[in-house]
UniProtKB/TrEMBL annotation:
Gene (UniProt): mqnB
Family indicated by similarity: Belongs to the PNP/UDP phosphorylase family. Futalosine hydrolase subfamily.
Pathway participation: Quinol/quinone metabolism; menaquinone biosynthesis
Entry protein name: Futalosine hydrolase
GO molecular function: adenosylhomocysteine nucleosidase activity; methylthioadenosine nucleosidase activity
One GO BP annotation of this record: nucleoside metabolic process
Keyword Hydrolase: yes
Top EC class, one word: hydrolase
One Pfam match: PNP_UDP_1
Function, in words: Catalyzes the hydrolysis of futalosine (FL) to dehypoxanthine futalosine (DHFL) and hypoxanthine, a step in the biosynthesis of menaquinone (MK, vitamin K2).
């Protein structure tokens, strides 16, 4: 049976996903924090499965996230239409320049700075999770932690609904393996001035367990 691969950053997220999934063909693996380690680990898992003659039918980047106040509240569920490499580019005196506006040859940019979710996976999860907020999910290497950072990110990505740290890396791995990708997040904290004590991890992990039932 061809299964689904669900990758999370940390073991607590993986446990929350496993608690909600009943389909034995769904494999859940905590692959680490940040786009580089998550992307590399996912690429390896996809390559090993392909080499064994049992390629995955899809990859889901799942876990908790910071939510942009307005579109989504703490405890809410988010489905990513796109995984956006929000801090990949260059600073300049005139502001941030996204990587695909730096004049580099397109073939060096892979799938680009924004990778769309697979429309079939997205539609299936959207049907199973009608209350989910659907929109672009930013991938950042640095958690946003100031008012200025939040304002700038919202200015650059007015449609974004959440930020997390792995989606784009996982999406690159999926794109290179031509495996469908989608991102599923639940919100542990608002994006804004850093207040780690205010993160509602228990609430977000419980929401993740509920949402994970949609994966099978
Ligand atoms: O300490 C714990 O028990 C625990 C349980 C579950 C998750 C964690 C994490 O530290 C998750 C890190 C993970 O969360 C994403 N995340 C969450 N909020 C944000 C944010 O505001 N900005 C960016 N990323 C966020 C991210 O994907 C991290 O990898 C701890």
């Amino acid at each position: 049976m061809i299964g689904l691969l669900v990758v999370t950053a940390v073991p607590a997220e993986a446990e929350a996903v496993r608690a909600g999934v009943s389909d034995p063909t769904v494999t859940v693996v905590p692959v680490g924090v940040g786009p580089a380690v998550a992307g590399a680990a996912t690429a390896r898992l996809l390559a090993l499965a392909e080499a064994a003659g049992r390629p995955y039918r899809g990859v889901v980047s799942a876990g908790v996230a910071g939510g942009f106040a307005g579109p989504v509240e703490v405890g809410g569920t988010v489905l990513g239409t796109h995984a956006v490499a929000a801090d990949l580019g260059a600073e300049s005196p005139d502001g941030f320049i996204p990587v695909d506006e730096l004049g580099m040859p397109a073939e060096l940019l892979g799938a680009g700075r924004s990778i769309a979710a697979d429309p079939h996976l997205l539609a299936a999860l959207g049907t199973a999770l009608p209350a989910a907020t659907v929109g672009p999910v930013l991938t950042v290497s640095t958690v946003t932690g100031t008012v200025a950072g939040t304002t700038e990110l919202r200015r650059r990505h007015p449609d974004a609904v959440a930020e997390a740290m792995e989606g784009y890396g996982v999406a690159v791995a999926a794109a290179q393996a031509t495996v469908p990708f989608v991102e599923l997040r639940t919100v542990s904290n608002p994006v804004g001035p850093r207040d780690r004590d205010a993160w509602r991890l228990r609430e977000a992990l419980a929401a993740l367990t509920k949402a994970a039932a949609a994966l099978g």
